[in-house]
Structure formats: structure tokens, C-alpha cells
């Protein structure tokens, strides 16, 4: 996914010799943007971002590992010494994965090696891991490809590399702020991780509150709009205000903001799809509270109590399947488009705020186009019991029913307000997150 960006800084990586001072010198000069003969954390972080390496603390870890004179930066001797030592460790890891000693790693070798570490992954997932490193499209990774991929990554052994593979994909349907999902051991021990979580949670809360009216309009149109009951943007807002006043535009926002705390905590503690069952209850409550009429529920707990009494525990897991399925197109397309857009729009190692917002907007829009029908089906399934308790179809039958009744574009009901909230949501999140980081003393 990151090959295009990596070649901006590593154009001749496949031709490198492990002992070639010239190759190290070329890379050092590219990273040393202020030409002072040293590469500090900021310069290295910018270089890593340009190559698609977004791991929190990676630049600091590399500089700390190679900084022998403790001046906070790497001169060329320290830089080349670090790379040589790092390559030796990468070579050992490569050999441990190359089980048949043919000089290449294939998907079955990755699958087998991870199984021995207690991680059973599918053939498809092992191929995805392989593709992230495979430059020449052979579906095998040789030493040069392996070295290019991990040369400026701080992972030093197989366990750390497996952890990187495990955490390298953001599994989210698009409602959450992209909060750093992995922390270094130093940040965990020093307590710096909680500042990241607080900054992300506050940014998410402000962003969601600011765009809550558009979010409620999206859900309102997803559930109630059809060919026979067309709801325009202005007409929908008028209808909601007439029914419950101006404050009704923020219905469901409380539970939406409340979701941020467990989302960030679970992503930090165990960044797995296991977060979905835990958060499913909150997502169902958010949908019901967003759609509720004035006086229908007195609050979140009253809503949960009435759903439980009338529909049972299974009601809190409605929409679970389309939500999981929707993760795949959204995450894949969003990340791929973001990297491509960043490369096309900006070629500097330190893109500005407008560039990041533009790339985030483009990638999020493309991801939503691919996953929106599944998001719509999820919302319908979460809301359907409140509409008609006798008609609760499965995901596939509900999708067929929508297409039969409203045509293909019926699967995109409410996408206009959804698109309208992308730019303000990304902008607010970014600005608030940066201000919170500064306020909390996060570099």
C-alpha cells in the first residue's frame, strides 16, 4: 500500500548493499532536510510519514536507539551504525520466516510462523500481509523487499513485527476519529498514552457535537426517506425542528459522544474486532435515541430498559453483521486513497494542515461510497423494531427489499448530509486534537 510513498525516499533500496556507506549517505541526506549534518526526531518523523509509517513513537525510538552521544539527534556515523545493526536483526527475522531457505517468504510461511506464535490467521490475511511488502507482484518477498519495508521501522524481532502486522490496519466503519492505536513501551510506562487518549476523545467529542445535526439528518433519511416519502435536507431539518425544537437536532449526540471513551480504551487495550460486540449496544442506543420522538424515552437508560423488555438482548446486536462486513471496503479504500492522494497532492516530507485535511476528506469520501449501503442496512436493522416489530428481515433480504422498492440509489439515502459533515468533522478533529496535544504537552 505504501510502495509509492516509500520510493520518494528509498528509490534505490532494492540495489542496496548492507555495507554500502553511499546508500546510507543518500538516505541520510534526504532525511536531513535542514542540512545541518544531523537527523533529529522531527526530521525523521516527517520522513517516516512520507513513507507511510505512522506508528506513534517510531521516530523517537530509532533516534534513542542510535543516539550514542545523547544529543537528541543522529549524525551520519550514528545513523549508519544503527542501520547496520538493525539490518542484522532484520536478516535474522527474515531467515526465521524463510522456512525452506529459498531466499523468499511466501504466504504459507507467514501463516505457519504466526501459527507457531499462537496466532492462527487465514490464508487471505497472510496474503494481505505479503502484498504490503511485495514490490514486484510475485506474491513472494525477497530480502531486498523485506529490508526496504522494515529498514526505517523500529521493529527488531518477529514478535514486534507480528504486533505491527496486527495493528497496521484501522478497522473502523468511519464514525471514529483516527486516534493512534499503538503506543511504545516508553509511552506506556511513562503514562504518556493517556494524554493521547484524552486528546483523541476530546477531539472526537467536539467534532461529533459540531456535526451532530447532519449526523441525525443522515440517520433520519436512511430510515424514513423513500421514493414515496422523499425527504429533502431543508425539509428534514424543518420537520425535526417542528417536532422537537432546535435542541432536537442534537438527539442521540450524548450517547454518540459517550461511545468515544470505550472505543479509545478498547482500541488501546485490545485492538481487535472484539470491540464490535462491546460497542454494539451503544450503537443501537445511538440509533434509537437519534430517531426517537419527543417524550418517547426519558434518557439512555430508559431507552435501554424499554428495548430490553420489549425485544430482548438480541436487539442490541442488530446490524452487527453489515457493520463487520462494511469494515473491509471502508478501511481498505480509505487507507489506500489517503496514501495515493497524499502522494499526488503533496510531495514534501511535512505536509501542511490543508493537505492533510484534503487527503482525509478525499479518502473518507471514497471509503464511504464503497461502504455506505452496508451502513444504511445496519441503521435500518438497528431501527426496524421501532418501526415494525413483525417485519425484521436479514441483511441480504433487507438490501434486496430496498433495491426493489427504491432502486439502486435507495441504498444511498442520506449520503448528502453524510458527505457534508466530512470536511467539518475532519477539520474540527484535527484542530482540536492538535490543540489538546499542545495543552497536554505531547510532542
Structural class based on helices, strands and sheet pairing: mainly alpha
Tally of domains = 2
Helix content: 55-70%
- CATH fold field value of the largest domain: Mitochondrial carrier fold
Going across the biggest sheet, name each strand in turn.
Answer: 1-2
Q: Report the principal-axis shape.
A: globular
Q: What is the strand tally?
A: 4
**Which homologous superfamily in CATH is the superfamily of the largest domain?**
Mitochondrial carrier domain
Count of alpha and pi helical runs: 22
Low-confidence stretches: 1-19, 169-182, 267-276
- First-last Cα distance: 27 Å
Radius of gyration: 24 Å
| Average pLDDT number | 75
Compressed to H and E, one letter per element, the order equals HHEHHEHEHHEHHHHHHHHHHHHHHH
Tell me the strand percentage band.
Answer: under 5%
Query: Largest sheet, described in full?
Result: 2 strands, antiparallel
Q: State the CATH class of the largest domain.
A: Mainly Alpha
CATH architecture field of the largest domain: Alpha/alpha barrel
Protein name: Calcium-binding mitochondrial carrier protein SCaMC-1-like
Catalytic activity: Mg(2+)(out) + phosphate(in) + ATP(out) = Mg(2+)(in) + phosphate(out) + ATP(in)
Solcar repeats: 191-277, 282-344, 351-439
InterPro entries: EF-hand-dom_pair, EF_Hand_1_Ca_BS, EF_hand_dom, MCP, MCP_dom_sf, MCP_transmembrane
